[in-house]
Amino acid sequence: MPAATSTGASGVIDLALAGAAVVVTGAGSGIGAATARLLGAAGASVALAGRREALLQQTAEAVVKAGGRAVTIPADLADPASPGRVIASAMAAFGRIDGLVNNAAMCQHRPLAEWDTAGFDEQLATNIRAPYFLIQAARPALRESRLKSVVNISSSSGTLRQSGQSVYGMTKCALDYLTQSLAGELAPDRIRVNCIAPGPVDTPIHATWADDLDEAYRWLESQVPLGRIGDPADLARWVALLLSPVSSFLTGVVLPVDGGQVIPRA
């Protein structure tokens, strides 16, 4: 049975994440780092996976300062051996895995004529193959855990057509399908698989495709009905909620957290 949640005199819901062990990929910056910090503040232990070791260490220090535990696992998730190694390292550090957040991603904007097979394969390997095999590797530990929760980070690009995003959008659409498919397959183990589809968020990923970030941000804001791009903390709160037993009757959901970006336009 999941740990009970409670509402104190303040009306704030206890997410019951204290003592949980969670793996977060892409944890060096953006949504991954914000999620790790929030989990630390909730009393969780966080395994931080990503390519940039210095940034992972900064996140680890923030997690510890917030009240949690942290271990860094430098890994290029495009490497087929990385998913298994990340999960094994997390188990060695904490002895358990209660949650998995598949946040790491690559985003490259290129028209059809400029893609080659190497770049195509690297983006698919990072954005869809790695989450798939991380879930596979984590399944035995999740089956024995109290949270039993996977949260995938997709994108509104999996729903909305944008020029130059054919490959990135395809991987995110695939991640949405993967979420729903594995939610059904893993339900007998009581493992929940949910997905958040962010709209534009203030993260370093935009620098991988925009030559003029200020102009890119102005354009992104114009695409959001609420008139602003998201902050990583906006997404981290939803990740924590989906990891928590507060959402124990929720699985297979692809939740848009996008300021209304995917609302059909008149």
Q: How would you characterize this protein structure?
A:
- Helix 3 runs parallel beside helix 4 and helix 4 packs parallel to helix 5 (166-186).
- A seven-stranded parallel sheet has the order 3-2-1-4-5-6-7, with helices on both faces.
- The protein has a single domain, classed as Rossmann fold (3-Layer(aba) Sandwich).
- Mean pLDDT is 90; it is low at 1-11.
- The protein is α/β, with parallel strands linked by helices.
- The chain has seven helices and seven strands.
- The protein is 41% helix and 14% strand.
User: What is the 3D form?
Assistant: globular
Estimated share of beta-strand residues: 5-15%
Number of helices: 7
CATH topology: Rossmann fold
CATH uppermost class:
Alpha Beta
Secondary structural class: alpha/beta
Give the N-terminus to C-terminus distance in angstroms: 46 Å
Helix-strand string? EHEHEHEHEHEHHE
Residue ranges: pLDDT <50 for 5 or more in a row?
1-11
Radius of gyration: 18 Å
Largest sheet geometry: 7 strands, parallel
User: Which range best describes the helical content: under 10%, 10-25%, 25-40%, 40-55%, 55-70% or over 70%?
Assistant: 40-55%
Instruction: Quote the average pLDDT.
Output: 90
Counted up, domains total 1
- Work out the number of β strands: 7
The strand line-up of the biggest sheet is 3-2-1-4-5-6-7
CATH H-level name... which superfamily? NAD(P)-binding Rossmann-like Domain
CATH architectural label: 3-Layer(aba) Sandwich
